[in-house]
Hints:
The chain is α/β, with parallel strands linked by helices. It has two domains: 1-89 and 168-250, Rossmann fold (3-Layer(aba) Sandwich), CATH 3.40.50.300; 91-164, no CATH class. It is built from eleven helices and eleven strands. It has helices spanning 44-51, 74-80, 97-107, 114-117, 119-124, 126-135, 151-163, 181-194, 207-213, 231-235, 238-244, and strands at residues 4-15, 18-24, 27-29, 33-37, 59-64, 67-68, 82-85, 169-173, 199-203, 216-221, 224-229. The protein has a six-stranded mixed sheet with strand order 7-8-9-4-10-11, with helices on both faces. Strands 1, 2, 3, 5 and 6 form a five-stranded antiparallel sheet that branches. Strand 1 and strand 2 form a beta hairpin.
Amino acid sequence: MDELILETRGLTKEFRGFTAVHEVDLRIRRGTIHALIGPNGAGKTTVFNLLTKFLEPTAGRIIFEDEDITGARPADVARRGMVRSFQISAVFPHLTVRDNVRVALQRKLGNSFHFWRSERVLDSLGPRSEALLDAVGLSGLGDALASELPYGRKRALEIATTLALDPAMLLLDEPMAGLGQEDIGRISALIRQVAADRTVLMVEHNLSVVADLCDVITVLTRGRVLAEGDYATVSANPEVAEAYLGTGHA
Length: 250
């Protein structure tokens, strides 16, 4: 639990003179659920884009699994085991639930065309795809088209396709966005289950979810780290209360 899986040092991103992220130091411990929260415009999404290399930092370093990945490409970062859900793991609406998972599983084989050419490869992925569907609560829905799933179940399918890559660390970008209360409970339980043997870093607006799930919370405001700690610590911080004043949410 004391081992760091991800660390940033002085992470900074400027856009034509505007500093969106300013010298952010993150220390994410292996096996934890870590939240990144803050008011709108605080820089949360920019940090996620920097970590997954969809943006290049202006300054600073990113260390993942004791390796400097600051100059790595997005595909290399995912291959090393840090995967951003709901972006990398796109769901194909006109494929079945099962076939979505099979496509994701084949990405680890290093040949994305196997799915279309080989029935043998397709069959060999069956047991693993069924296990993943069962793990995210989609057992029995394998033959349904992804487009037919309710929104909350699509989120579960997206997590399944991400887990198919067997990541060491999941980055979840607002996993509860657009979900009803029942689905929030289901996806929260799924995240807790997923985090049993991997690390999760999440951006989330729903503070009750953050309070319930997260071991450590980093609060950003205006691109800087304002506070960090467990929920009791950060919620008692008067600067955090001031940053959220009038927003009603993270």
